[in-house]
Write a structure and sequence with these properties.
about 450 residues; 6-stranded mixed β-sheet; binds flavin-adenine dinucleotide; 8-stranded mixed β-sheet; alpha/beta
C-alpha cells in the first residue's frame, strides 16, 4: 500500500512529536508519524516494577530554577507532574569501601577537589592538543588509582561534568534537577503535548496519522520527494521527511538511504560518541540502607572503575517501596546487557553485602533495561567531546535534500537531554517550514510565469 502525505516524521519520541506539533500549528496537518515501537516516547519510558512506576530512560528534568524557564518543566507544571528534588552533591560523602566503612568526609572532599582540578587540566590539554605543545606534558593530570579516586573519577566524568565545564542546561535553565516520580510516567508530558494537535481520548492517542509498529527501513530520496519504506512493506510518499531516530540508529544499518548518504554525513554521524547509561532496579523485602537526610545517593569504591559504583534509594520518591537503583555506564552497561539478569543480581548482591554486611536479604526482583541492544535505540544518548562540538553537530543536523534530521543529538546546546530533544524538534520544523515557504513561492512564481 502507498500513502501520500506532505511530511513523514520518523519516530515518536520527544523530538518527533514536538516537530509534528509545530508543523500542525503552522497549518501542515498532512503529516504521518511512523514509530517503530508499539508505543510513543522512545527513550522516555516507564514500567511497573515492585509496585511503583519506574523510569527506564530519562528520569530527571534537569535545569530548573534559573533565569530562563525549561520548556519541559513548563510541560510538567501543566500536567501536574509529581517530582522530587534531587541533590547529588552529598553522594561524595557517602562513599563506602570494601569493608563497609564510609570514607571520612574530609578525605572524600579532598579527593573530589583533586579530581575536579585534574579533570580541568585534562580538558585544557585536550583543547590545546592540536598544537602538540610539549609544555603541556608538564601539566599531565594524575591518573586515578585508588578505589576512592576511581569512584570519584567515575561520578565526575559520567555524571557531573558541570563541576568542570559550564553546561548550557545549568547555565540557561538553572542548576536544580527534579526526579520524575509520577505513576503516569514522564511520558504523560508527551500525551499532554499530543492533546494539542492529535485526536486523543482518555489519555490515548486515536489519531490515524500516528502509526505504531512501523519500522522504517529505507528512504529513497530525490529532488522531487522521499519514498519511505517500512519493514511490513508499506510505502509512504512524502514531500519531506523529518528523521528523529537516535544517533545510535543512524550509526547502525537499520535504515538504508538511496542514494547513500554522502561521506561528510556518515563521517559526522560515526564520529559522535554514544553514551550507554543503565539504571538497574532491585526490589527488596525490607530496607537495610540509611534513609536519613542527605543519604539518597551513595557510592561503592572498588578497584574496578564503574563497577556498581553509583546507587540511589527510592524512599524519597516512593516511601516503603524498598527499591534500590544502581547506575552503570558504557562498558559495564554493555557487559550487563549481555548477561542474564540473575547474574547481574548476584553481582549486585555481592557488592551490597560488602557495603552493608552479609546478613542483608536477597533482592526479590530485578529490572535491567537494555538500551544498547534495542535496535530502535542503540545507546542512551549522544556524547560530544566538549571542544569539537560545533562542526560535528552542524554536519549531523544538516538536511540532505528533502530529509531533515532532528533529535537530542542535533541540539548543540542541550544534547543528551529531554529538553534538548524537545527543542530540536521545534528547530527542525522551523527550518522545514521556511523551506516549504520558499518552495511555495517558487512554484507560485512559475505558475504566474506560465
Ligand atoms: P527518541 O526518544 O529515541 O525517539 C526516537 C524514536 O524513533 C523512538 O521512539 C524510536 O523507537 C523510533 N525509531 C527508531 N528507529 C526507527 C525506525 N527505523 N522507524 C521508525 N521509528 C524508529 N534526559 C534528561 O533530560 N534527563 C535524564 O535524566 C535523562 N536520563 C536518561 C537515562 C537513560 C537511561 C536514557 C536512555 C536517556 C536519558 N536521557 C535523559 C536522555 C533523553 O531520554 C533523550 O535525550 C530524549 O528522550 C531523546 O528523544 P529523541 O526524540 O531525540 O529520541
Amino acid at each position: 500500500t502507498t500513502t501520500r502525505c506532505s511530511v513523514v516524521v520518523v519516530g515518536a519520541g520527544f523530538s518527533g512529536l514536538s516537530a509534528a506539533k509545530l508543523l500542525a500549528e503552522n497549518g501542515v496537518e498532512d503529516v504521518v508519524i511512523l514509530e517503530a515501537a508499539d508505543r510513543i516516547g522512545g527513550r522516555v519510558r516507564k514500567e511497573e516494577f515492585g509496585g511503583v512506576s519506574v523510569e527506564l530512560g530519562a528520569g530527571w528534568i534537569s535545569g530548573v530554577g534559573g533565569k530562563q524557564s525549561n520548556p519541559v518543566w513548563e510541560l510538567a507544571r501543566q500536567s501536574n507532574l509529581r517530582t522530587c528534588f534531587s541533590d547529588y552533591s552529598n553522594a561524595r560523602y557517602n562513599i563506602y569501601d570494601d569493608s563497609g566503612k564510609i570514607f571520612p568526609s574530609r578525605i572524600a572532599a579532598d579527593s573530589y577537589k583533586k579530581a575536579v582540578e585534574s579533570a580541568i587540566r585534562k580538558l585544557r590539554n585536550e583543547e590545546s592538543n592540536h598544537d602538540a605543545d610539549l609544555s603541556v606534558l608538564a601539566e599531565t593530570p594524575s591518573v586515578p588509582k585508588t578505589p576512592i579516586e576511581l569512584a570519584i573519577d567515575f561520578i565526575l566524568h559520567d555524571f557531573e561534568m558541570a563541576e568542570v565545564e559550564p553546561i548550557s542546561t545549568y547555565v540557561d535553565f538553572g542548576e536544580r534537577e527534579f526526579l520524575v516520580v509520577d505513576e503516569r510516567g514522564y511520558e504523560c508530558l508527551l500525551y499532554k503535548m499530543a492533546e494539542n494537535f492529535l485526536l486523543t481520548s482518555e489519555g490515548k492517542i486515536l489519531d490515524s496519522r500516528l502509526k505504531l509498529n512501523k519500522v522504517v527501513r529505507e528512504l529513497q530520496h530525490s529532488r522531487n520527494g522521499v519514498s519511505v519504506k517500512t519493514e511490513d512493506g508499506s510505502i509512504y510518499e512524502a514531500n519531506y521527511v523529518i528523521l528523529s531516530v537516535s544517533i545510535g540508529v543512524l550509526q547502525s544499518d537499520l535504515i538504508s538511504f538511496n542514494p547513500p548518504l554522502p561521506k561528510w554525513k556518515t563521517e559526522a554521524i560515526n564520529n559522535c560518541d554514544i553514551m550507554v547509561y543503565t539504571k538497574v532496579f532491585l526490589k527488596f523485602p525490607r530496607k537495610f540502607w540509611p534513609c536519613g537526610p542527605e543519604k539518597e545517593f551513595f557510592i561503592y569504591a572498588n578497584e574496578r572503575r564503574g563497577y556498581y559504583t553509583f546507587w540511589q534509594h527510592m524512599e524519597n520518591a516512593y516511601p516503603g517501596s524498598n527499591i534500590l537503583v544502581v547506575t552503570l555506564t558504557n562498558g559495564e552497561s554493555k557487559r550487563v546487557e549481555a548477561q542474564s539478569d540473575q547474574q547481574t543480581m548476584k553481582e549486585a548482591m555481592e557488592v551490597l553485602r560488602k557495603m552493608f554486611g552479609p546478613e542483608i536479604p536477597d533482592a526479590i526482583d530485578i529490572l535491567v533495561p537494555r538500551w544498547w541492544n534495542n535496535r530502535f535505540q542503540r545507546g542512551s544518548y549522544s556524547n560530544y567531546p566538549i571542544y569539537i562540538n560545533h562542526p560535528l553537530i552542524d554536519d549531523i543536523k544538516a538536511p540532505l535534500g528533502r530529509i531533515y534530521f532532528t533529535g537530542e543529538h542535533t541540539n548543540e546546546k542541550f544534547n543528551g537531554y529531554v529538553h534538548g530533544a524537545y527543542l530540536s524538534g521545534i528547530e527542525t520544523s522551523k527550518a522545514l517550514l521556511e523551506e516549504m515557504r520558499i518552495e511555495k513561492e517558487i512554484i507560485g512564481e512559475n505558475e504566474a510565469f506560465l
